[in-house]
Design goal:
- The complex is a heterodimer.
- Helix content of chain A is 80%, strand content 0%.
- By secondary structure, chain A is an all-alpha fold.
- Chain A has one domain.
- Chain B is mostly helical.
- Chain B has one domain: Four Helix Bundle (Hemerythrin (Met), subunit A), CATH 1.20.120.80.
- Chain B contains six helices and no strands.
- The chains are: A mainly alpha, B mainly alpha.
Chain lengths: 92, 201
């Protein structure tokens, strides 16, 4: 099995784990943490191995990785500080 | 005592960065615009969720998870086909490249097909654009993503035609690679959208 096949299998396996969570998960810190982790790991795999950014310009690579780091952080902040976000985005 | 270390990681050892940018400059302008656009759209999701906790808690239960999972499998496998297309053109196996690009297109076309049946199922179950804030946000983000995937598919059709005409070679395949990196970008965005609407509560 080649490198691309291993990465594909890993991504499919992680997606299956996400699907299982979708059927069984309830709102909790645990669920948000796992989802944030899955977004980060799967994003990292696609960026470095599908897009070949691990051998590309470090600046481009950092910018792409920033995306899959920022979104999981926002997922966790949204879970923990929902009321703050609501206050900050309310009119009047 | 042996010094041998057995690695169980499926990933290869780190490779030194070359500073190379896959594809071409134009596609990267598009890719970063798309990423910024979706970051703003994700902002809409987070704000709507903060204001309507109950709707976002119950919303995913009514959606067909199987549709979201199938779309993820289709996109990841189509992306894999484009990885192989780039690999084979580097090895000057042009017929194989065409096969992989066509494979990516067929799997990619599965996305709008699944989406069509998903929306039909949704509407039959009362989940339309006026079913509540969660579903409005869901349609807003997922249909926006579908538009970007459609552009990617058009790019793949263009690349398939150029591959069939023998216009790519191991020395010049930047157009093929540009279509591939854009296609993978739509994967990265979907990997965020999928848990937002089908998994997270």
């Amino acid at each position: 099995m080649g490198h691309a096949e291993r990465i594909w299998l890993l991504l499919i396996g992680l997606t299956a784990a996400g699907a299982w969570l979708a059927e069984t998960g309830h709102s909790s810190w645990g669920l948000s943490l796992v989802v944030a982790g899955l977004i980060g790991v799967k994003g990292h795999l696609v960026i470095d191995h599908y897009m070949e950014m691990r051998t590309a310009s470090p600046r481009f690579r950092r910018l792409l990785h920033a995306f899959v780091v920022l979104v999981p952080v926002l997922v966790l902040l949204s879970h923990g500080f929902s009321d703050v976000l609501q206050r900050l985005t309310s009119l009047g | 005592m042996s010094d041998t270390v057995i690695s169980v990681s499926p990933l290869p050892p780190p490779v030194a960065a070359t500073g190379r940018v896959p594809g071409n400059a134009g596609i990267w302008v598009g890719i970063f615009c798309v990423l910024v656009e979706f970051l703003l759209l994700f902002g809409v999701y987070f704000v709507a969720k903060a204001h309507h906790r109950e709707a976002f808690l119950a919303g995913p239960d009514k959606l067909a998870t199987v549709a979201g999972v199938t779309i993820t499998f289709l996109l990841l496998t189509s992306g894999y086909c484009m990885v192989k297309a780039v690999e084979t053109i580097r090895a000057d196996r042009r017929r194989a490249t065409l096969g992989w690009v066509l494979g990516a297109i067929v799997l990619g076309l599965g996305y709008p097909l699944v989406k069509f049946f998903e929306i039909r199922w949704n509407v039959a179950h009362g989940i339309d654009g006026e079913a509540g804030i969660f579903y409005t946000t869901y349609y807003y983000l997922t249909l926006n993503h579908l538009v970007h995937v459609s552009w990617g598919l058009l790019g793949l059709f263009w690349v398939a035609a150029r591959t069939a005409l023998g216009m790519y070679s191991p020395r010049d395949y930047s157009g093929l690679e540009a279509a591939a990196v854009y296609w993978h970008t739509t994967d990265v965005i979907w990997l965020v959208i999928f848990p937002f609407f089908y998994v997270l509560r």
